[in-house]
Amino acid sequence: MGADEPLFAAPGGMMQAGLWGGVGLAIAVALLSGWRDWRRARRDDPDAVSMIDWPTVQVFALLTAAILGALAVRG
């Protein structure tokens, strides 16, 4: 460990790999929430409502993916 390296630095870009993993997870959540919203819009029983607002989940997941992607590219 050299004098110019931070004390708690992840070796070999492991932090960047973790950020890309977070991007993948956020995109997976966005896809899942889009599918659930599509199913909600086409349900047979209009009284069977969900407790989760899927479009909001999708927006937050996409924002998270964009922010983590920007951090990962920045390096």
Short recap of the structure:
This protein is mainly alpha-helical. It has helices at 14-41, 54-74.
What does this structure look like?
- With 75 residues, this protein is mainly α.
- 65% of the residues lie in helices and 0% in strands.
- Helix 1 (14-41) packs antiparallel against helix 2 (54-74).
- The protein starts with 13 loop residues before the first helix and ends with a helix.
- The relative contact order is 0.17.
N to C succession of SSEs = HH
Principal-axis shape: rod-shaped
Q: Could you say which structural class the secondary elements and strand pairing correspond to?
A: mainly alpha
Low-confidence stretches: none
Strand residue content = under 5%
Mean pLDDT: 87
Main beta sheet, described?
A: none
Distance between the termini: 20 Å
- From the alpha carbons, calculate the radius of gyration and give it in angstroms: 18 Å
Give the helix level as a range of percent: 55-70%
The total count of strands amounts to: 0
| Secondary structure tally, helices | 2
